[in-house]
Structure formats: C-alpha cells, structure tokens
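Researcher: Go.
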Amino acid sequence: MIKEIADPEKVDSLANHITQSWEWGEFRKQTPSIKQILRLGSLEDGRLVKVWQIMFSKVPHLPSYTVAYLPRGPIPEAQELEEIKQFCRKEKAVFLKMEPFDFAPGKPDCDLPLGVQGKPILPRHTIYIDLTQSEEELLSQMHEKTRYNIRLAQKKGVLVREENSPEALESFIKLLEDTEKRQKFYSHTADYYRKLWGVLRPANMVYLLSANGPHVAHGSSGTNSPIAAIMLFRFKDFLYYPYGGSNHEFRHYMAPQLLHFEAMKLGKRLGCKTYDLWGSYKNSPTQDDPWWGFYRLKSGLGGKEVDFPETIDVPFSPLYQPLMAVDSLRWFLLKFLKRLK
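Model: Structure:
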C-alpha cells in the first residue's frame, strides 16, 4: 500500500540520496518552478519499507499541467508504480521521470516495461571515492599528474579553507557564473543557490571550500577573492561534489585538485565513507563538450565508476511527445546561442 508520508525522520531514514531527503524537498519548495512536493511511502504489514519524494514542476504556458520528477529513489514494483501513477495523475502530471538509485555492477539498466527511455537530468555515471582509506591511500590512487598538481598548488602557497559565511557563498556564486560563461554551459540562477544554502546550511548538509593564492590581491581583479571554490553536500555517510568554479587567470595555481583533496579530508572528519563526484567523464567523452574540463579533472582523482539505471519516463498524456519535441528544440537553441557568445 502506498500513502503520503509527513514525518521528516521517516523520510530521511529510508532515503539513499540527498535529493530524496526531506530537507532537499523543503529547499525545492522554495524554487519558482516547483508546484508541489509529494512524499510517498510503501508499507508492508504496516511497516514503512520504501519512500519516494516526487517533485512536480510547472509546465511553461500550461499552468494546469505538471511534470513529475523522482530522482534517485528506489525502483518501484509494478503494483507500486500503478499506485504512484494515481498520485501523479491527481497533480495533472504529463509524465513521471524516474532516475533510480538502484544499481548493480554489470547490469545498470532497469527492467521496467511500463516506461520509455528518457533524457537524464542527473548524470547517469559517477565516481565513488572510498573515504575509509588513509590520506596516503587516497593520494596513491590518484593519477600521477593529479598528485603533482596537488603538490604544486601547495608549493605555490594555495590555502584551502572551509568558509560557510554569506560572503563566501556570494564569492562562490561569482566564480561559478564566470566559469559558466567561460565553459559555455548552463547552471542554476544565483537565487537557486541562495535558497539551497538557506535550507541545507542550518541542517549541516552543505559546505563551501575556498582556495586562495598567496598574492591574489595583486592580480587584475584587485581583490582578495578566492581563485577557486567548490560546494559540497553531505547526507548520511556520503559527501557529494555537485558544483565548482574557478578564476581562469590563476589556473596555473592548480587549486581545483588541491580543493578536492581537502574535500576528501573534510569528508573523513565528518564521518563520511564515500565521496560522490556527481558525474564522471563517461557523461562527456569528447573534448568539445562544455563539461569536458570538469570530467577530466574528476578522472584523475581515483575512485571507481558507478553506473545508475537509465532514466525512465512514464507518460500519462498525449502531451508527452509534443513537450519532448519542444524541450529538444529549446536546448538546441540555447546551446547554439551560448556558442555565439
């Protein structure tokens, strides 16, 4: 039996990923594109055994319709899916997009006949780094060039600090926006990060690491701003790296590699067992991809490749195909315009 769950502790106890946490849902409620957050639970003999957090986004120009999104939840059984579909129909969802957490070595695909392969939102491939290893073991599994760059950054006097102030957040947002323009990719708005910070920071679920060079104040920017920074999520025993940015002027300091080594050390101090890099180079196999630089950096940090099941779309309405066509055209135009800048 499927029913709505209103207990944060019960939701978090069964969630396997930060995007399924109660706090993530509370954050997403504050973003303008989200119309509703629904937490559903599967009960067996009165005991809660699974939880799904579904986010309902507004469809532009069709205000009475939504798109249901279920990131990194458990794969529902056929009967569970039928009940979940009923909840989605009540919210007038055109379709349900599922990106399951479940994975198995050698068999990443999900055998679910009630859906079609969809376009992914989260990276299907990522890298897990085992934080139960010693610092020496973490370094030894990295690519030789990555270890060299870490030592070079230290030799050049790069200092990494955990800075969780509002000012540090604004500096991070600026670095990320500069990187987005330089690499020609799309990210979230500044308000998105501010709302995320406002909800996750009081729960100790988000952290900022900033890298400063020894004489950045004498650079062209004329300020003592960080030369690189990363945002980290923490949920249960996972530390996640979803976002990062850097100042291209100081790229020779090799700060990003040192930032990630310091992130691993922070994760160990927090009691985390796994560092999830939120994507791998498998998602970006060619150098003309705007994310190539991020994935190349990640590939040198060591760890193991993890493949999640393919994205599954479960259509409910004849509007599904037209919406997919419009979305494809929209992204084609956005990428074309980005290349012109």
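Model: The CA atoms of residues 27 and 196 lie 6 Å apart.
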